[in-house]
Write a structure and sequence with these properties.
Blueprint: H1 16-33, E1 47-52, H2 58-69, E2 73-78, H3 90-98, E3 104-109, H4 114-121, E4 125-131, H5 137-151, E5 158-162, H6 169-180, E6 184-188, H7 198-202, E7 205-207, H8 210-216, E8 219-222, H9 238-245, H10 249-253, E9 260-262, H11 275-278, H12 285-310
Parallel strand pairs: 1-2, 1-3, 3-4, 5-6, 5-8, 6-7, 8-9
Length: 311
């Protein structure tokens, strides 16, 4: 089977069959990652540039590790320390890199739509590693993989996405993916952080009551408050946010069932998530990070297959 797309720009562009193919392929790569020798020769002839115009810990390391596990040649580019600081355009930078015979571009950028722009102008396969407040497709795929691993399926599962939905590319990619795969979704948080369009656009439940969302769900995906994307305050203080919307051990103890806690990271401990919840047995946060490598291996492997198909 093949993906229906040459690039991974967003979950919006994927079919349910594409998503299942990526998750099933990731299951095979996760098995490879349990072996003493965690490397396969699948991308031995492929050169990949990791183009990071915005900070990252998990995604950058995870892609780099996935590429190395697949035996690809990799180049790491960070905007600071590059000629982007001298005014070179994104397109000029990428065309210069591609002239050195690079096959695939993994890109994170603070501007929404930057990977879509590149895909229209260059021949290489593009993987979106997070663009502004638009999409973070590999995060949604690794979240889905982790839910499937924990609960067996996505279809029919109840997922609450909690917190700063307004500024979150993780929320948008998760919404597209969960709805395409038949999960039920509730978004919860303060009214100022929940976009007005979201209920109709995605056919999801909306609540401003965190306890109600937690009582309803099987899985709570808790999002970071993204202060760097808020031009003006959208809630009174971090302390009050934690009191009204933070996930605490006490809140979880009052529920009728044990739910799964997820977070894409980085965590603001004591704001959206208390430390004793983040580090509890209910949390699968580090499993999400572990699964990210297998999921990114699957994405790169399947897109490389499309590349040779179109050559
Ligand atoms: N989840 C995530 O994208 O983390 P980083 O910003 O550290 O890559």
């Amino acid at each position: 089977m093949q993906l229906s797309t040459r690039h991974l720009l967003g979950i919006k562009d994927l079919s349910p069959q594409d998503i299942s193919l990526i998750l099933d392929t990731a299951t095979q790569f996760k098995e490879v990652l349990q072996r003493p020798i965690k490397k396969v020769p699948s991308l031995r002839d492929v050169t990949i540039v990791n183009l990071f115009y915005e900070n990252s810990t998990r995604t950058r390391i995870s892609f780099e590790l996935a590429e190395k596990r697949l035996s690809a040649d990799t180049i790491n580019f960070t905007a600071s320390g590059s000629s982007a600081a001298k005014g070179e355009t994104l397109l000029d930078t990428v065309n210069n890199i591609l002239s050195m015979k690079v096959d695939m571009v993994v890109m994170r950028h603070s501007a929404s739509g930057a990977p879509q722009f590149l895909a229209r102008h260059i021949p290489a396969a593009i993987v979106n590693a997070g663009d502004g407040i638009n999409e973070h497709p590999t995060q949604a795929l690794l979240d889905a993989f982790s839910i499937r691993e924990k609960l067996g399926t996505l279809s029919g599962k109840k997922v609450a996405i909690i917190g700063d939905i307004m500024h979150s590319r993780v929320a948008l990619s998760n919404l597209y993916l969960l709805k395409k795969m038949g999960a039920e979704v509730t978004v919860a948080g303060p009214p100022t952080l929940l976009p007005k369009y979201i209920k109709e656009a995605f056919d999801v439940n909306v609540t401003y009551n965190i306890q109600e969302a937690l009582n309803w769900c099987d899985v709570a995906n808790v999002l970071r408050i993204q202060l760097e994307r808020q031009n003006q305050p959208l809630f009174s203080s971090l302390r009050e946010y934690n009191l009204a919307y933070g996930i605490s051990k006490k809140l979880l103890a009052g529920l009728q069932k044990e739910i799964v806690i997820m977070h894409p990271g980085p965590i603001n401990r004591g704001v959206e998530l208390d430390s004793d919840v983040a580090d509890s047995g209910q949390s699968i946060i580090l499993q999400q990070v572990e699964n990210g490598v297998a999921v990114r291996m699957a994405v790169l492997y399947l897109l490389a297959g499309k590349r040779s198909e179109s050559a």
